[in-house]
Amino acid sequence: MIQEYNIRVLPEVAANEQQLKAYLVHEKGLDEKTLNATRILKRSIDARQRTVFVNLTVRAYVNEVPKDDEYQHTVYNNVEGRPQVIVVGAGPGGLFAALRLIELGLRPIVVERGKDVRERKKDLAQISRTQAVDPESNYSFGEGGAGAYSDGKLYTRSKKRGNVDKILNVFCQHGASTSILVDAHPHIGTDKLPRVIENMRNTILQCGGEVHFQTRMDALLIEGDEVKGIETNTGQTFLGPVILATGHSARDVYR
Ligand SMILES: Cc1cc2nc3c(=O)[nH]c(=O)nc-3n(C[C@H](O)[C@H](O)[C@H](O)COP(=O)(O)OP(=O)(O)OC[C@H]3O[C@@H](n4cnc5c(N)ncnc54)[C@H](O)[C@@H]3O)c2cc1C
User: Fold this and answer.
1) What residue ranges define each of the domains in the chain, with the CATH number in brackets?
2) Which residues pair with 140 in a beta bridge?
3) 7-35: string of b/e by CB count within 10 Å (b at 16+)?
4) Ligand 1: does its nearest atom lie under 6 Å from the Cβ of 151?
5) Which residues touch 205 (CB under 8 Å, ≥6 apart)?
6) Cβ–Cβ contacts within 10 Å for residue 108, how many?
7) 111 and 238 in contact (C-beta within 8 Å)?
8) Which of 95, 109, 141, 182 has the fewest C-beta atoms under 10 angstroms from its C-beta?
């Protein structure tokens, strides 16, 4: 039997499976011998009073063993030789678009005007040290996009428009803590975010996609009323349908 409970417990109970089991045995009348495991499905902290509580949705496995993995794994197959799609921008929009294209059997060609997420850090340090801003590599531009060097709070208003759980699982697959699957306010962490972004890029490359840094789309190639590809500042042109994932700071694009 698998049972789900909404409970309110002290932080030490929420943080320890043995204590959580003891709580369920005591408060919900479960049998200690047959309660094999628990899984936390949702977690939020209520710190409004002097005593802090943790609200949990918890699943109890009675006479059952959890079969589920820690997160849902998405299969990314090799897409070499498949039709290509140009993705302009390697912020969250562009990276997730590229991964989704792979799932659909299409080959993403990502072009990003800024540098990769590690090189970009040096330009951010330069801003603090000398106040010199590289117009192509800064807090807005570069791999990971505008929030890459913030603290990675996973905030969205689009809950009704898409599958947020899928996004969280993809983050876990690329190195984020599985706590983001249960926390009411999921948070990757500044220290971990660059590695997660690199891992996403590596999935794209390993599947046969391309990622071009310091490559800025300067124009769309348009024939008749159809977009055929892009021109870039490196002189390279890329042909294929185009996804513009350039964020809200790329004023030159919209101009
Ligand atoms: C300082 C800061 C902190 C933030 N912290 C958080 C947070 O904690 N949690 C949260 O949910 N949101 C946060 N945000 C908001 C979040 O970063 C954005 O909602 C998100 O980055 C938008 O993603 P995007 O992919 O649409 O665009 P962007 O992240 O802006 O990515 C666009 C990418 O396109 C590239 N690009 C632009 N023009 C071109 C071109 N012509 N050719 C090639 N490449 C191009 C850019 O270099 C950039 O990398 C923060 C934003 C900022 C600025």
Assistant:
1) 2-62 (3.30.70.2700), 84-254 (3.50.50.60)
2) none
3) bebeeebbeeeeebbebbeeeeebeeeeb
4) yes
5) 211
6) 27
7) yes
8) 182
DSSP character for 133?
-
Nearest by Cα to 139 from 61, 249, 33 = 249
Instruction: Give how far Cα 88 sits from Cα of 60, 61, 91, 123, 244, Å.
Output: 46, 46, 9, 21, 5
Residues 6+ apart with CB under 8 A from 107: 79, 80, 81, 82, 83, 84, 85, 101, 208, 209, 210
Q: Give the residue, out of 116, 137, 141, 149, with the most ligand 1 atoms within 8 A of its beta carbon, to mutate for a pocket test.
A: 141
Contact present, 192 and 213 (Cβ < 8 Å): no
CA angle at 191 for the pair 186 and 196, rounded to the nearest 5°? 70
Query: What is the percent of the chain where pLDDT is above 70?
Result: 99
What's the farthest any 2 CA atoms get from each other in the chain? Answer: 72
243: part of which helix (H) or strand (E)?
strand 242-244
pLDDT for 154: 83
Which pLDDT value is given to residue 153? 81
- Ligand 1 site, residue 6, Cβ cutoff 6 A: no
The span from the CA of 163 to the CA of 186, in Å, is: 15
Q: How confident is the model at residue 194 (pLDDT cuts 50, 70, 90)?
A: very high
Ligand 1 near 145 CB (within 6 A): yes
CB 59 within 8 A of CB 39: yes
The residue type found at 238 is F
CA 75 to centroid of chain Cα atoms: 16
Q: How are beta strands 226-232 and 84-88 bridged, if at all? A: unpaired
